[in-house]
Structure formats: structure tokens, C-alpha cells
Amino acid sequence: MVHLNDLTVTVIGAGNMGGAVARAIRKAGVGAERLVLLNSSEESTAKAARGIGAASAFEKYGSDATLASAVADSHVIVLGFKPYHLQAMAPKIAPHVQEGALIVSLLAGASLETLSEAFNGHTALVRAMPNTPIAVGKGVVGLMPGEQTSESERELARALFAQSSTVVDIPEHQVHGVIGAAGSAPAYFFLIAEVMIDEAVAQGFTRAVATDLVVGTMVGSASVLHETGEAPTSARYAVTSPGGATAQAIAALEEGGIRALMARGMRAAAETSRKMEER
Ligand SMILES: NC(=O)c1ccc[n+]([C@@H]2O[C@H](COP(=O)([O-])OP(=O)(O)OC[C@H]3O[C@@H](n4cnc5c(N)ncnc54)[C@H](OP(=O)(O)O)[C@@H]3O)[C@@H](O)[C@H]2O)c1
């Protein structure tokens, strides 16, 4: 059992994703005073800290040597800035990291090897690939611990995300598959929702009613799979009477190539992520 309320956690770069992860960490039990945020300016940090219910590193440690003091004081350091800032940020962070502190990187495309080099061979290292629904406490996160990261450090990383996400441990080489299946996937579902809402409007519903119909059905369908563990095929059979409306709808979607198209989209996301990492 990991006790998070005794830990000090600093999120460096609490923007869209770092901010969502900071909320997840608050939800996991880290207190407002012990969750410290640090953005590029005092103003932006204060705004994020107010919005999330966390402390500003500038207020807590003063405006001189803010980053160094925050890092030196932290049991967990979350990297939430853009990947292209790593080269400039790492030398400012690395000398101050406590020996046993856990570094959690959200940086897409920065491998464990790159991170280990950037942080002078620090071993308590976990890459995390969350998706945006973590912002509402329903994310999915792929965790990739470093080879030398201990079991208790891995458990700590899981505990940070567990209240707001489905946590999946993956080997690092599968990160691109995670991007195809989860990282980019909210956008596929948003697109499907958009198309269905437009069609419901075309069939005469107001946009508000169309949205209720489609989004409510999406939430309900996801809950069926999530809460019962039923396989998608069997859940679909339960809605599909022989010769009925659903059977005709499914036949039309299959004729349009829905399976191949979804697979192609997922493969395109994974492939693009792979190429980005090679650059
Ligand atoms: N968005 C996603 O779906 C997603 C998914 C998985 C992983 N990621 C990863 O998450 C990371 C952040 O992406 P994002 O979309 O959240 O970007 P973002 O909203 O632009 O956030 C970047 C954050 O970094 C801060 N920052 C910039 N320079 C800094 C400095 N010198 N010191 C401290 N903080 C600094 C920014 O602060 P200011 O606001 O003050 O400039 C901002 O809070 C990236 O590495 C990305 O690969 C994103």
C-alpha cells in the first residue's frame, strides 16, 4: 500500500496534460500543499495552481532558484513540458534530484534511454503515456518503467494514476501501439460522435437532443463493456435481432469497410508515433 499523503510531488509543466495529471495526483491523495506546480512564468504557475488546487513553486520556494529548490524537495518529479524542452530543462533539473526520487515523464517521443542519459543515469524512472480523459478522472495510461526501476517505484507510479485512469503496464517498444489504441483514440470516438450527431440532426432532432441521444448511448455502451467485462461481439449480438434494424445498420457499416478503416487509423497513429521517435 503506497501512502501518497506523505509525499511532495512537483509537476514541471502543468499545461494541458501536466495539469490533468496534476489533478489525478491530487485525487490520488497528495495534499494541496505538497503538490507543487512549476510553469514557465510566475503568473501562469499561479493560475494553474489556483485552478487545480495545488501550490505554486514560486510562492513556496521564492523567485530565486525556484526550479532547483522544488526539485530538491520532491519525492516525485513529473515532467509535463514539451519534448523539445528536454535538452534545455534536464541540466537544470538533474543536479537537484534526490537520490530516491521518482521521475515520471509524460514527454511523447523521449525514450527511457534518452531520459536516463538526460538525468545522469537516474534509475527511478517511469514513462507515462496518458490520454486526455484523465482530465475527467476516466483516462487510460500506459506505464513504462525503466529496467532498473524498483517494484516499489513502479507501484508508486501506478498509485499516482490509479484514481483517475485505467493503468496498463507495457514494455516500452509497445508505446506506439498504446498511442494508436488509447493516446489518439479519444479523437476517433469524438469523430464518431460528431458524425452521428450530424446525422441525427439531419433526421430532424435538435442538436441538443441529438447530442443527448448519441453521447448518452456512447457512455452507456462503454459502461456495459467496462462494468460487465462482456466481449464487444456478444454485447452487439444482444442488440441485433435477425433481419432487424441493427442488423441492417451493421451490414451497411461493414460494407463501408468500418473494420479496415478503424484498423488503418490505429496503424497510422502508431506508425506516425514511431517515426516521431526516430527523428
Ligand atoms: N496533450 C496530449 O494528449 C498528450 C498526451 C500524452 C503526452 N503528452 C505530453 O505532455 C507534454 C505536454 O504537452 P501539452 O499538450 O500538455 O502541452 P502544453 O499544454 O503546452 O503544456 C506545456 C507546459 O510546459 C510548461 N513550460 C514551458 N516551458 C517551461 C519551463 N521553462 N519551465 C517550466 N515549465 C515550462 C508550460 O508553461 P506555460 O503555460 O507557462 O508556458 C506548460 O504548462 C508533452 O511532452 C507531450 O508530449 C501530451
UniProtKB/TrEMBL annotation:
Q: Which SUPFAM superfamilies match?
A: 6-phosphogluconate dehydrogenase C-terminal domain-like, NAD(P)-binding Rossmann-fold domains
Domain Pyrroline-5-carboxylate reductase catalytic N-terminal, chain residue ranges per copy: 9-109
**Keywords attached to this entry:** Amino-acid biosynthesis, Cytoplasm, NADP, Oxidoreductase, Proline biosynthesis
Pfam family, any one: P5CR_dimer
Q: Which InterPro entries match?
A: 6-PGluconate_DH-like_C_sf, NAD(P)-bd_dom_sf, P5C_Rdtase_cat_N, P5CR_dimer, Pyrroline-COOH_reductase
Q: Where in the cell is it found?
A: Cytoplasm
Q: What's its EC?
A: 1.5.1.2
- Domain of life, per UniProt, equals Bacteria
Q: Which reaction does it catalyse?
A: L-proline + NADP(+) = (S)-1-pyrroline-5-carboxylate + NADPH + 2 H(+); L-proline + NAD(+) = (S)-1-pyrroline-5-carboxylate + NADH + 2 H(+)
Pyrroline-5-carboxylate reductase dimerisation domain mapped to chain residues = 172-276
- To which pathway does this protein belong? Amino-acid biosynthesis; L-proline biosynthesis; L-proline from L-glutamate 5-semialdehyde: step 1/1
Single GO term (MF): pyrroline-5-carboxylate reductase activity
Entry's NCBIfam families?
proC
What does it do?
Catalyzes the reduction of 1-pyrroline-5-carboxylate (PCA) to L-proline.
The record's comment on protein family reads: Belongs to the pyrroline-5-carboxylate reductase family.
This one is known as: Pyrroline-5-carboxylate reductase
Quick one: which gene encodes this?
proC
